[in-house]
Amino acid sequence: MTVFLEKECVIDFSFDPEEIAAKVADAVLDSEGCPYEAQVNVTITDDASIHEINLEQRGIDRATDVLSFPMSQFEVPGDFTFLEEMDFDSFEPDSGELMLGDIVISADHVKSQAEEYGHSELREYAFLVAHSMFHLIGYDHMVPEEAAVMEKKQEAILQTLGITRQ
Length: 166
Hints:
Helix content: 40-55%
Shape: globular
Largest sheet: 4 strands, mixed
Oligomer: single chain
Low-confidence stretches: none
Strand order of the largest sheet: 1-2-4-3
Number of helices: 6
Structural class: alpha/beta
């Protein structure tokens, strides 16, 4: 797993965000049986910047905790079989890695939501990475049934990694 991390703001987390993103991303892909080495871009920014991105890209005029921009559109969530046959643009030419897309996380939201939910910033950050990774491989939560599937999968990843609510 290759994680390209860009920090657009001052980050004073007590953990290495690149290391945690790679561990969580690997766990998600392993849980879904991804047969490829993969890469993802993670940008950590502040509320003002993510607000601007949310408005430009989604037409939603507010800050949010995380945004996901997948490189490929999965018809069936977590089903990677179509990639080699139909979507050669999904693989990085030099490394051969599957390019999953971009994750944008608000450091401000990591801090405020960790406090609001009564758990560590590590747990909140790991949750947001897991949430976004599932979006990058086709999962969504637009209806209650989809939301329940995503929630169960996200929690399983965090449990597997021992990143629990503290």
